[in-house]
Design a protein that fits this description.
Chain lengths: 113, 114
């Protein structure tokens, strides 16, 4: 059990559509980070949320947006999907004190056709 | 620019062989260092971490890593691998000076042959 829950596990979308991915952090964690992992590559940082605000952002276009709710859960939204957005999207939760490291979910596999 | 490189893309070893996976980082300031493992079909798990103190860090399942500041390296080692160590291994780093994002390396795929 990862402690971090992501939904859905798999998703197929058509180019140009919009998608929303969801994440429930590990109990007691207050920070959520989102990563994109293309096949055969390491996770790439998208953004991080703490206290319902985006605190840091990686090198991703504005088509990628997110939200964090008062219960610390989070959503990742991607608009105007491109074929290149096909990847595994990972949610990682942590405490603001990073000493404990990240706990990752199993991810959402997004396929854009 | 902040980056992490890993020396090998794919490593194949026989059971009982020794393992060393190389990792180098480019990052300004003091850092925290991590190794994560992703077993087939499973989520990323923290293998070990270095924050400060003894540069030789011991993790789960007999893994250890050594932080060599002068070489900007954090290599992962295990004296004797098992078939169950077959997995993808990721080195990662973040800045100690702020609540910074964790940057991951490209990963090394380890296959252990029985």
């Amino acid at each position: 059990d990862a402690g971090v829950t992501q939904s859905p596990t798999h998703l197929i979308k058509t180019r140009g559509q919009q998608v929303t991915l969801r994440c429930s952090p590990k109990s007691g964690h207050d920070t959520v980070s989102w990563y994109q992992q293309a096949l055969g590559q390491g996770p790439q940082f998208i953004f991080q949320y703490y206290e319902e605000e985006e605190r840091q952002r990686g090198n991703f276009p504005d088509r990628f947006s997110g939200h964090q709710f008062p219960n610390y859960s989070s959503e990742l939204n991607v608009n105007a999907l491109l074929l290149g957005d096909s990847a595994l999207y990972l949610c990682a939760s942590s405490l603001r004190d990073r000493a404990l490291g990240y706990t990752f979910g199993s991810g959402t596999r997004l396929t854009v056709v | 620019a902040q980056s992490v490189s890993q020396h090998n893309h794919h490593v194949i070893l026989s059971e009982a062989a020794s393992l060393e996976l190389g990792c180098n980082y480019s990052y300004g300031g003091t850092v925290n260092l991590f190794w994560y493992v992703q077993y087939p079909g499973q989520h990323l798990q923290l293998l070990l971490k270095y924050f400060s103190g003894d540069p030789l860090v011991k993790g789960i399942k007999g893994f250890e890593a050594e932080f060599i500041k002068s070489k900007f390296s954090f290599n992962l080692r295990k004296p004797s691998v098992q078939w169950s160590d077959t997995a993808e291994y990721f080195c990662a780093v973040n800045s100690k000076t702020s609540y910074d994002k964790v940057i991951f390396g490209p990963g090394t795929s380890l296959s252990v042959i029985p």
